[in-house]
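Dear colleague,

Following up on yesterday's call, I've attached the two folding results inline so they're easy to grep. Please treat them as preliminary; we haven't cross-checked anything against experimental data yet. The first protein's sequence and structure tokens come first.
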Amino acid sequence: MAALDDKVHAILNIHTKCEILRQLRDININPSSFYSGDLNYDVYFSFYTDQCQKALYDGGRHASVRSHRDILEIARHVKNNVDRISIRDMISLKLSVPKPQNEDELSYGSIDLVARLLTMVAVGRLQYSFTGRGHVAWTASALKNSIYSHFNAPIALHGETVKLEKVFNARNLKRIGGIEIEWTKNLADHLSFDDFDQKVSIFYHASFLECHRQSPLYPPGLIDETIQTLKLLFPGTDTGTRKWFRKLSSRNNLDKKLLRCGRLRAEDRRIENFHFWHDRLIILKQIFDEAEPSTIQQWWCDRRKRVQWYTFWVAALVLALTILFGVIQCVEGALQVYKAFNP
């Protein structure tokens, strides 16, 4: 398609999007069904455009790709498990002569960009390209090996006593635990907690995950387990969660597929069912459990400890009535004094 030769910063038409999905992500879709299905592809293309613009900042001096075809050609090598050095050599052959002094930077900048577009994982440390804390170092072998190594870290925390109750969801993280949500486009940041800012990162590209359940670039089970965590945090059957998320999604261009992932059954809510996100779930759940209400709204919403909740509000009611009756008595006393001097 001629449109694939367009500059990466050009506005994407629907035909180009469909062709990119077919070649980059192995998704066969035609323009007539692009918007009619259950998946939100435009959320991904917002990420795609943003990454391309950031990789080609400063006049494209840090990456050699210029067109969508350049990206797709490199992606083909990455998906065929060609090692990083060999891909660099292939790119180098196409660079103009005489070769630029920053030849390696141009080649590796393009390779890292394509790796990010393929996996939605922060590969490399290109300036302005990715925010977040989790980065995957890809230095020599095939990208698949680096992704596997990063996500297959051994479990370090024991969580025999951790229970993932229904109250533990994304909406309650804020309204009960005071934990802010940071929506991330970096899968490596999913469920990571920033202790300083009291924020948890949540990877919200549910449509992307749904399309990559069988992708060989990820360790087996990683994508399915990530979807399970979204079911845990965004139960589609919870009315409060649905209303809350709809307000957020309209302001932040979130993937609405997030609410259509489903919900977890009771037997699926056990912490031992999670391997890749096991430790991060334990940390987040412990922070949530230890959070004490500090505002009136949190006191009202936090009903995890029923006795404490009833005690607080009975005491608050007694205090309010005491103040009210005290004010009434003061007013009555004032009126009596006034009438005594002004019969």
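Below is the second protein, in the same order (sequence, then structure):
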Amino acid sequence: MQLNEAELPALARGCAVLGTGGGGAVETAVPSAMQAIRRHGPVPVVRLDELGDDDLIVPLSGIGAPTVGHEMLMSLEQPQRLCEEIERILGRRPAAIMAAEIGGSNGVEPVAWAAQVGLPLLDADGMGRAFPEVQMVSMNVAGLPLDLVVMSDVVGNVATLRPVSAVWAERLARAVCVASGASSLLSSYVMTAGQARGGLIEGSVSAAMDIGRSVEGATDPLAALRDCLGACELIHGKIVDVERRTGGGFVHGSVVVQGTDSCRGRMLRVELQNENLLALEDGEILASVPDLITIVDTQTAGAISTEMLRFGQRVSVLAWSCDPLWRTPRGLEIAGPAAFGYDIAYRPVEELAHVGR
């Protein structure tokens, strides 16, 4: 498979949905991906089983606050500098670029990055969605070693970190990110294809494109999207309150949706840290991480990232199940509610959300 200009809109729509509010707004990523394809040609998309065991995979993602990344765009040189540094350290050229997370602009920008460095894009990622912290990846769940983190910012700085753990990788990378203006390009868990087997969410690029295509030409885009995701609609209504604060390389806050029509009289609050974390009604949790919660435009079914939420928008809140890897004890330890400071036990969304409510 090759990604060309015509397929980017579907990929972007799917990545926006899988971003669960985070990963960066796709609106800023599509133009740079289109420009890169026009300049360098379509990007080959390869499966993990097409790579040799010794082939080197470079996961890439933007790190920082989405509210900053929406305004401070990345430079064309960042991925090149980063890959050159990895080649200098490891002594060999990477074989493929991988999106560290398939959600938001971090699922779309790797198309541009792969085109710019002349490498294929791997049909996989490390989350199957978006999460806000470096250690919240499938490679960590699988126990893969993390001994190298490389970062590149828009100024031209390149930082190499040798963390003792994935948690320390997050702390150190976040500090460098803040020093770079709360936005940077990051690579962690550089690995061979042999190491990666069993440790990735495979097929995620294809899945994002399928999600994006599901609403194309649909008479009822929202219903088409729900069916494609197997999602339940927690509420539909109007945004009546948005609270966001940027600090420490994150966006924290909440959004309140007041129900309309069949949901009249109800209020739903979604709490966020870059991504949507919890959905609550009258103190009752209807969905929580690691399951996916996405706010979409009710008419178009287009996902709305956290930095683009505004008072008065007519929205629907969808929730659906995460990849089974995140429901394992190790997965919940890394990215369950407790990992975000919530003193609650995780329950699957299909038990909590009262489908058909």
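For the second protein, one point worth flagging: The chain has a mean pLDDT of 94.

Best wishes,
A.L.
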